Amino acid sequence: MLSTSAKFIHSIGFRLFSTFNVIASDGSSHSVSGRDNESVMSAIKRAGIPIVSACEGNMACGTCHIVLDKGHFDALAPASEDEQDTLDFVPKPTDTSRLACALHVSPMLDGATISIPGMGRNLVSEEDMM
Fold first, then answer.
1. pLDDT in tens, the chain (130 residues)
2. How far apart are CA 98 and CA 80, in angstroms?
3. Which residues, at least 6 apart from 55, have a Cβ–Cβ distance to it below 8 Å?
4. Domains of the chain: which residue ranges?
5. What is the greatest pairwise CA distance in the chain?
6. Of 21, 52, 59, 114, which residue is least crowded by CB atoms under 10 Å?
7. Burial 83-105 (b: 16+ CB within 10 A, else e)
8. How far is 62 from 71, CA to CA, in rounded Å?
9. SS3 of 9, please?
10. Own/partner pairs, 57-60, CB within 8 angstroms, 24+ separation
């Protein structure tokens, strides 16, 4: 469920950053503030939380697979076709799976809980690029 502040901020359209909770793959919990329109992956990395990004944010590998809480997931625009194509191949996707490189920080993520599952499968290897 969205926080009251997220609903208010979304309705007036003014905010420079949003804060969300990240549960790292080791189970530790972190509060992360990201600049609006920044990728969730960039915000997580800037906070010093380990997240794999083998394709460097190009929605090609699936290693930045994250899971959002249901209330915030439902408030977001659906994944693009390219993002969904990559999510189709990540190990153990959930109904609320997204790619951290494709999802951008916005007031709709304020107060969200984002989990980073354990190591995923890299859909792009160096051998595939040669």
1. 555 555 555 545 555 899 999 999 999 999 999 999 999 999 999 999 999 989 888 898 999 999 999 999 999 999 999 999 999 999 889 999 999 999 999 999 999 999 999 765 555 544 433 3
2. 10
3. 61, 63, 101, 124
4. 4-120
5. 50
6. 21
7. bbebbeebeebbebbbbbbbbbb
8. 23
9. helix
10. 57/101, 58/101, 59/83, 59/86, 59/99, 59/101, 59/102, 60/86, 60/123, 60/124
DSSP lists the bridge partners of residue 39 as 104
Q: Which two tokens stand for residue 84?
A: 């969904």
Amino acid at 11: S
AA identity, residue 88: D
Place of tokens 């380990």: 50
How many beta carbons lie within 10 A of that of residue 26, not counting itself? 9
Q: Residue 26 has which token pair?
A: 């080791």
